[in-house]
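Example 9 (inverse folding). The structure is encoded as follows.
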């Protein structure tokens, strides 16, 4: 199984890809930059790192592998865990583990796994097609001397010379006019860019002031606290899947009695009726509930990332 290919596919779309039992790959955004020593321009990018402490399965990688290889989620998860154990054994034997175009792992003497990024992939999909390039600096002083040396000097001593001078003046005036029009276009572009940047700064200042503003109201009304349940989103903490639909609804009632916002989200492609503890719009919130459920209620709970029609 080419797991490195599946990991690369997910790193373009997600900031965290967890390999159950091994660790997690994390991407960090870096803005465009210039190296003044080499005059090299670098596009914006997302660099990949590794955290060996994040090993809890969130279902993202296993779901992706199951969908691509057309197998069950359980089989995909088993293959991933088996491969993770093989990597660990290879590292403990003193050998390196290399993932194609992602990076390599090595085991240090202080019982620490070190990850070295390959640096061959830019995981920022918005920077697709942008590459680093070198733009040598212009020596303005040298160019000025060359222009001054190449400027012709015309001596006028007759009426014929006057006519020649007038023709040179007309050509010069035309060149100045064209240069002015071109310069004006460049200037207008710079003005528009400056105005856009200043508008963004002003909008940010206003937003910060609104967030920081405090209001004092005489005789305020009593505070009213409302709890609005939210059970929609693309991140679902799965409690189980049932062949018989009636059993799925019984499971929903049991979980609701425990205080969960459980619901039946329909049958998957294998005909199993899935029941969720709760659905979230935020992946972070879903992972928090998943860890809590695995700790106190169901060790086999897992995270499903899927957009539902309902």
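The amino acid assigned to each position is listed next.
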């Amino acid at each position: 199984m080419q797991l490195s290919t599946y990991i690369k596919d997910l790193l373009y779309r997600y900031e965290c890809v967890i390999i159950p039992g091994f660790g997690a790959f994390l991407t960090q955004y870096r803005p465009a930059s210039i190296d003044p020593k080499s005059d090299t321009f670098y596009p914006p990018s997302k660099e990949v790192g590794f955290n060996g402490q994040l090993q809890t399965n969130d279902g993202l990688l296993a779901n992706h592998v199951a969908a691509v290889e057309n197998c069950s989620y359980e089989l995909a998860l088993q293959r991933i865990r088996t491969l993770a154990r093989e990597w660990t054994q290879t590292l403990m034997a003193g050998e390196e583990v290399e993932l194609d175009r992602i990076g390599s792992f090595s085991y240090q003497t202080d019982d620490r796994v070190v990850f070295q990024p390959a640096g061959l992939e830019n995981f920022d999909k918005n920077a697709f097609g942008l590459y680093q390039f070198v733009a040598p600096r212009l020596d303005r002083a040298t160019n000025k001397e060359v222009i001054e040396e190449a400027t012709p000097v015309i001596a006028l001593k007759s009426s014929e010379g006057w006519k020649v001078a007038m023709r040179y003046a007309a050509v010069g005036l035309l060149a100045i006019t064209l240069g002015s029009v071109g310069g004006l276009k460049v200037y207008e572009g710079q003005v528009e860019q400056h105005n856009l940047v200043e508008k963004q700064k002003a909008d940010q200042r206003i937003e910060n002031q609104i967030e920081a503003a405090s209001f004092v109201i005489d005789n305020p009304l009593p505070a009213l606290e409302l709890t609005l349940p939210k059970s929609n989103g693309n991140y679902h903490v799965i409690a189980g899947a049932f062949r018989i639909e009636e059993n799925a609804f019984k499971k929903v009632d049991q979980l609701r009695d425990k205080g969960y916002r459980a619901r039946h989200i329909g049958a998957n492609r294998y005909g199993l009726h899935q029941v969720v503890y709760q659905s979230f719009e935020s992946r972070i919130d879903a992972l928090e509930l998943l860890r809590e459920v695995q700790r106190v209620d169901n060790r086999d709970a897992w995270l499903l990332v899927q957009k539902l029609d309902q």
